[in-house]
Amino acid sequence: MKEIKTKLLIIGAGPGGYVCAIRAGQLGIDTVVIEAGKPGGTCLNVGCIPSKALIHAADEYEKVSRLSGKNALGISTSKPKIDLSQTMEWKDGIVSRLNSGVAGLLKKHGVKTVEGWAKFRDGKTVEVDTPTGPQIIRAEYVVIGTGSAPVELPFLPFGDKVISSTDALSLTEIPGKLAVVGGGYIGLELGIAYAKLGSEVTVVEAESSILPQYDKDLIRPVLKRLDALGIKVMTKAKAKGLSTKGNSLLVENGGGVDHKIPADKILVTVGRKPVTHGWGLEEIDLRMDGPFIHINDKCQTSMRGTYAIGDVTGEPMLAHRAMAQGEMVAEIIAGEKRTWDKVCIPAVCFTDPEIVTAGLSPKEAKDMGYAIKTDSFPFQANGRAMSAEREEGFVRIVARADNHLVLGIQAVGVGVSELSAGFALALEMGARLEDIAATIHAHPTQSEALQEAALKTLGHALHI
Ligand code: FAD
Ligand code: NAD
Fold it and tell me: Which of 31, 54, 344, 414 could be a cystine partner for 390, CB 3.0 to 4.6 Å?
């Protein structure tokens, strides 16, 4: 059996693992990364990137469909058609370019990539089933970045009609009727995309609201849009299984009332679970935090020299959190003094309109004991938003009442994902309301709503 020694061994080349490997390579650390699938992990292959590609295609299709009818812009065009298999080929092309990009970056930084499934023999030794036979790798430091997988409901196992997000990202025909179980990030992002492509979509959500982690003000514009797209939303509703004929989803909606929702496909998006099985966690006996691997503020696990990053370590399961952890761990292994000291991990929900949150919501700030000042500025009063038909939504700021330190910024609106960088920067730099109010924001841009929200919270907005 082939055997190699390395200083750093990383299991999983998702955004956590591959970023850790690149940074380690830059720092001159002898690094091996093991990946069972393709470089880029969930995010690049079956997550962030392909979902945003599908969302883009659906947006374009819906835009042309809308313009083919009576519209305020005076544009006339004929009704569009879409060949979903060609759309998927285009999406696969983007994924494949990025796969090669990540592989190239790893190579450029001197990282050795081993293809295959890794299994611990002991804390510092891993066996990999490579296409050319088993290989043993011994390392001084190990980083576990095994990621997450979709949660399956026992009464709706994946297969045929019941699909996961991965399947929904490679359909070649648009389902006539699509039932979505779980009105969270994935269910809504993909549910909206398929509704725009022509599916009749019903979202079944167990809680009293879709996207239950967000407050009502942020969700209202999304609910309005779902209604306009003809998407039915059932809240306090639980999926129970398939009908006997298999052509409907059975749903219990409060008080034992049962519904049958006819469906060609049932997309189950009820969360993701950490990948903690099949790679020998039992051999190394790590301390856990519920289903996740326990880590401290340096991403160290309970075993010396062993780190864990990304989705396998818990919420929020976001690619940019995994990347930031990966980068930090590489620097710690290189001897730098680093701890997880981030003020915020911004989150974007790519619904229509999009939702961005960074830092604390008004309720979270109050629950933490802060006396706050908070106000919002609507896109209805923003020239750029009006001239781009993007008047829905607002930017909201939450600040400490005493010294005006900004604690949180949220927004909902078309295209607001691109504002998230400014929100996170303001929070990381410890901005006060006066700093944002005094920063010149280019005109006409949607970002002016951030400056105006700060001015409004200070009591002297200029454009409302
Ligand atoms: P992963 O990306 O899951 O990568 C783990 C890798 O480890 C995988 O490639 C796997 O093959 C490999 N692996 C596991 N075990 C082994 C083993 N024993 N041996 C070898 N290899 C192994 N996040 C965002 O921030 N923004 C978004 O817009 C977004 N959209 C998403 C859309 C969808 C449909 C989904 C499903 C997820 C989305 N996410 C999004 C979440 C994001 O994809 C994850 O947070 C991110 O991929 C986590 O990165 P990771 O490195 O922890 O793990
Ligand atoms: P989620 O946690 O966002 O939403 C799951 C939803 O399903 C919740 O609203 C929950 O109440 C509901 N639910 C659970 N069990 C149910 C049942 N039996 N019947 C009906 N509803 C039920 O999970 P997700 O949408 O699967 O996404 C998983 C994770 O992936 C997210 O938490 C996020 O971390 C990540 N993600 C991020 C993005 C992004 O950043 N834009 C996009 C997609 C996914």
Answer: 414
